Amino acid sequence: MTARRAPRMMRQTTLVERVRAYDPDADEDILNKAYVFAMQAHGPQKRASGDPYFSHPLEVAGILTDLKLDTATIATALLHDTVEDTTATIADIEHEFGAEIEIGRAHV
Known about the structure:
Elements: H1 12-22, H2 28-42, H3 55-66, H4 71-79, H5 82-85, H6 90-97
Helix pairs in contact: 1-2, 2-4, 3-4
């Protein structure tokens, strides 16, 4: 029986590069901050499949870069499960990221 390998997750720098390829003025700081915040919030959580929990929000963010969506939308994609599945609150997200990233009202 072969052990299942964890999926290779997109690196933070790769995500930023993908966004900046179509939006050279993208807010790199907010993308980096959202990536780190979400990854740390999810910590060692695993999905039922055994994959790191953060792999899902990261995949969503990657899909949205293919659609060439804006920085706030990509950041929201990274953060969209933090309020539901971690100890982070809507107030935490609003405090850290401002009103533009409305995680509690987003439908990513």
